[in-house]
């Protein structure tokens, strides 16, 4: 072996291509990252104001072999050292998923090693296991990304109870749509977060959707519509638009609901540990408010570093490792499933 490992170490080669990042990672025993290469397509999609699936798929095809090679080189290993291959098979853009999954299948077949299909949403949760080596389930996890907003009780590795989810727009999707309406560009989340720091979060009383009493579900379409109506109203009256105040007030309306439901759910479940995951976990306002509220309740909060919040293959490899040691194996006939739900397992 060309790295310092012992005979029983598990070396995972992981591939992530669910949206607009081509990423390949090598991990040792699930939680130790030897390489994590990400080829981003943000520049290609910025001119369209969002991800174009056909463009994303073509860029994945162009990038995948180069990124695999770079990941192996940075980890100082060869294919001979790899124990198994893990790859995202859903949810995501079906064409994009198939590029990474096909590459993983080819490696597994050629090297005669196991394949482990991975759920992308689970990957966001497991990013915390890489960041916090001591972390173990059970805990409550708030998953907030461009396509998903979930409150999940993680009982054990691979065992989940969905306590709440969005009924319409995901939080990250709402951020992107509001950013587009403000003329900020793509991706919208970081731009809104940056502007919000200079704005007054109480300037505009945007609605906060708590839904029916006791519900841990989310809804952000009404808030998004309220922001658009406000912007249109300002334009019709010939009034200037206070962009920083709009960003701050909108962001506050989102994160207050996310945090309040997370805290209430955690207290009801009698848990003392909360984990934050997903691309929107990088939002500074969300981190600060959740940190404040969990501290008040004596709840331990964990979240990943910024580089592990966005889509990356290291988080996929961590899930793949636990699937592998749990005895799960995927067939080479495994297909991409764009609407894959958390907790679903397909072989």
UniProtKB/TrEMBL annotation:
Binds 1 Fe(2+) ion per subunit. The keyword Ribonucleoprotein does not apply. One of its GO terms (biological process) is tRNA threonylcarbamoyladenosine modification. Its EC number is 2.3.1.234. GO terms for cellular component: cytoplasm. The keyword DNA-binding does not apply. It comes from the Bacteria. It catalyses: L-threonylcarbamoyladenylate + adenosine(37) in tRNA = N(6)-L-threonylcarbamoyladenosine(37) in tRNA + AMP + H(+). Fe cation binds at residues 120, 124, 311. Residues 33-317 form the Gcp-like domain. GO terms for molecular function: iron ion binding; tRNA N(6)-L-threonylcarbamoyladenine synthase activity. InterPro entries: ATPase_NBD (IPR043129), Gcp-like_dom (IPR000905), KAE1/TsaD (IPR017861), TsaD (IPR022450). Its cofactor is Fe(2+). Its main location: cytoplasm. It is found in: Cytoplasm. Substrate binds at residues 143-147, 176, 189, 193, 283. Keywords: Acyltransferase, Cytoplasm, Iron, Metal-binding, Transferase, tRNA processing. Belongs to the KAE1 / TsaD family. Required for the formation of a threonylcarbamoyl group on adenosine at position 37 (t(6)A37) in tRNAs that read codons beginning with adenine. Is involved in the transfer of the threonylcarbamoyl moiety of threonylcarbamoyl-AMP (TC-AMP) to the N6 group of A37, together with TsaE and TsaB. TsaD likely plays a direct catalytic role in this reaction. This is tRNA N6-adenosine threonylcarbamoyltransferase.
């Amino acid at each position: 072996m060309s790295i310092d490992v012992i005979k029983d170490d598990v070396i995972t080669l992981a591939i992530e291509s669910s949206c607009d990042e081509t990423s390949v990672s090598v991990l040792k025993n699930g939680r130790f990252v030897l390489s994590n290469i990400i080829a981003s397509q943000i520049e290609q999609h910025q001119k369209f104001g969002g991800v174009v699936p056909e463009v994303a798929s073509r860029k994945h095809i162009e990038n995948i072999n180069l990124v695999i090679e770079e990941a192996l080189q940075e980890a100082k290993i060869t294919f001979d050292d790899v124990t198994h291959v893990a790859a995202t098979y859903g949810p995501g853009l079906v064409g994009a998923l198939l590029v990474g999954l096909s590459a993983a299948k080819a490696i597994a077949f050629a090297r005669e090693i196991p394949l482990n299909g991975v759920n992308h949403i689970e990957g966001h949760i497991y990013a915390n296991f890489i960041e916090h080596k001591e972390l173990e389930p059970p805990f409550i996890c708030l998953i907030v990304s461009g396509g998903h907003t979930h409150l999940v009780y993680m009982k054990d590795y691979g065992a989940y109870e969905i306590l709440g989810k969005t009924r319409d727009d995901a939080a990250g999707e709402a951020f992107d749509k509001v950013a587009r309406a403000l003329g900020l560009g793509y991706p919208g989340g970081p731009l809104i977060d940056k502007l919000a720091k200079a704005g007054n979060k109480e300037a505009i009383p945007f609605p906060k959707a708590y839904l029916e009493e006791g519900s841990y579900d989310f809804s952000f379409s009404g808030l998004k519509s309220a922001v658009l109506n406000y912007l249109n109203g300002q334009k019709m009256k010939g009034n200037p638009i206070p962009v920083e105040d709009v960003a701050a007030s909108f962001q506050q309306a989102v994160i207050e609901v996310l945090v309040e439901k997370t805290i209430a759910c955690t207290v009801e479940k009698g848990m003392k540990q909360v984990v934050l995951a997903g691309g929107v976990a990088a939002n500074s306002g969300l981190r600060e408010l959740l940190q404040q509220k969990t501290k008040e309740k004596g709840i331990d909060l964990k979240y990943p570093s910024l580089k592990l919040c966005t889509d990356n293959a290291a988080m996929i490899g961590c899930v793949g490792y636990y699937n592998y040691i749990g005895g799960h194996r995927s067939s080479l006939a495994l297909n991409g499933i764009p609407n894959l739900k958390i907790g679903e397992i397909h072989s």
